[in-house]
Amino acid sequence: MGDRHLAALRNPAMTDPVKLESKLISYVDANRARLVSLICDLVRIPSENSPPNGSELNCQQYIGRFFHQLGWKTDIYDLTEVPGLDRHHLFWPGREYRQRPNVDARRKGTGDGRSLLLSGHIDTVPKGTQPWTRDPFGGEVEGNRIYGRGSNDMKAGIGTHLFVAECLDQLGVNLAGDLIIESVVDEEFGGVNGTLAGRLRGFNADAAVIAEPTFLKICPAQRGGRFVHITLNASGGILAEGCFPRGILDQLRFFLEGVEAFSSQRAMRAKPHELYAQYADPVPVSITKISTSPWGTGEPVTIPEICKIEMYWQLLPGETRDQVDSEFFAWLNGLLQSRPDLFPTPPVLEFPVRWLPGSSISKTDPLVQEFSSCATRALGQEPAIVGFEAPCDMYVFHQECGVPALLWGVRGGNTHAADEYVEIDSVVAAAKALLIFVCQWCGVSNGPKTC
Q: Residue 264: which residues within 8 A CB-CB, separation 6 or more?
């Protein structure tokens, strides 16, 4: 142990909560550039998830080296090494995990405090075919923004976790409880196999904080989600006896008009939830993709015979798969039966993404209340406690492990779109709140540092 650490142990400010919080906040302000550089480093290393494959390896190696250099006990492991993972009822088959490891790192406490897990996913959605005005993997800093794929979802969160670990080391803060930080793969596109693998591998704690971009709101709840791919079929071409062919156009128009009725039905029937009461549409229904004929003059002029529709709707904590699926099929069957002349061939349905349930803990849970207190002191105002507006992997902690967990993260924009960005001032604020909470939840000890 170096002189800096010995001096810190003798420094009563390390165990005085008020003085410690002041030191933590000052450290973040003084090392803002370091925090930004960590995030930029991660953004510049592509880690796109393109099921069934992904390219997270290089980013995970960067994170593994980071923790190894800090002296943390680090485990970089292949998901196929985790006993029982592929037999677990939550395991989603059909994904390839070669060269896609998880990274978990542990800083042992002195043994007389509560343990905490800081979790996040390193995979991003692909850069896509939308036109970017900046390099998707450039990590460009402009004003208050860092641009790049994954900057907001969620490399700013992962970078903040690395910064928290480094801060504790630099300030010589010894925690009483264990602190675990993990970076998991394959969370996007409904994947939770990486998150599940961490739990089966044994990286568990008394509570968890997950780095989703919550816009500096505390989110103890997540929505669920359901995806379906619907293929409409009809005769097409360009000429028909006595009439111009309609193809799937009438089917498509009728279907899209019916979606509005399904959305209204969902809004009326979904059981209210206190953490989503402030949202105008707590259970949104969306059409996310429509594809018909190939485009361009390289294709013949023809009326489309096939239309593929991606439909996505969200659900609240407490709704079951049977309830949600029964509601959908009742609506769809009613729609088809009302116009059998339009649908001589029934649409083909596929469910490409796992069932994603909503999940929550109470806003009065000790984890939520303690985090709120810490964030209020860091931000100078009380953050909102609301439900997260999308599905994620938090339900694994709540429903499979019985671990209280919440989402906390940064503010940004264009998430999953071109020119994604994160706002730097929100990253600084998020780091301050998280550091204060880590020290309060785990406790600060005068005992020797262990790894």
A: none
